[in-house]
Specification:
This protein has one domain. It has one helix and nine strands. The radius of gyration is 18 Å and the shape is globular. The strands form two sheets. It has a six-stranded parallel beta sheet with strand order 1-2-3-5-7-9, with no helix packed on it. It is mainly beta.
Length: 138
């Protein structure tokens, strides 16, 4: 019994001391999964998609298509640039910080969707256009 208790104690100590890693995702938009959906792993570099606390998303280029938010997601940070587009459709994307890179023209589209950031940072020379849907801070 003692070796089991010792092993259990070591495992618990390792879990407590293990660092928390944030996950960074970069949009490729290569439609490897057959669509342009946010939740399609193949559309993000490294495969997998941002869908929770500690996750960040960068959308500055694409091979085939810009992302379509196909569910309600909450992530820490969203950075967009290089004349990128984000279609939110009827869903909500909640982010802590929404950043538009310098000299970029970013467009948000969607029928009634919403990007819901805690704060918006628009760097010098950039524009943010909301052609439909909305961007509202909370």
């Amino acid at each position: 019994m003692k070796p089991f208790v010792t092993a259990l104690g070591i495992c618990a100590a390792l879990l407590v001391c293990a660092p928390a890693y944030a996950s960074a995702f970069t949009w490729e938009g290569d439609a490897g999964g057959g669509d342009c959906n946010w939740s399609t792993d193949e559309n993000w570099a490294g495969r997998g998609y941002p869908d929770g606390s500690g996750h960040t998303a960068t959308i500055t280029s694409m091979t085939y298509c810009w992302p379509t938010v196909d569910g309600t997601w909450e992530i820490d940070d969203l950075t967009m640039g290089n004349s990128s587009y984000l279609a939110v459709q009827t869903f909500t994307l909640t982010v802590d910080v929404f950043t538009v890179n310098a000299s970029s023209a970013v467009t948000i589209t969607g029928s009634s969707g919403m990007v819901y950031p805690d704060s918006i940072v628009i760097n010098g020379g950039s524009t943010l256009t909301v052609s439909s849907g909305s961007v509202e801070t909370y």
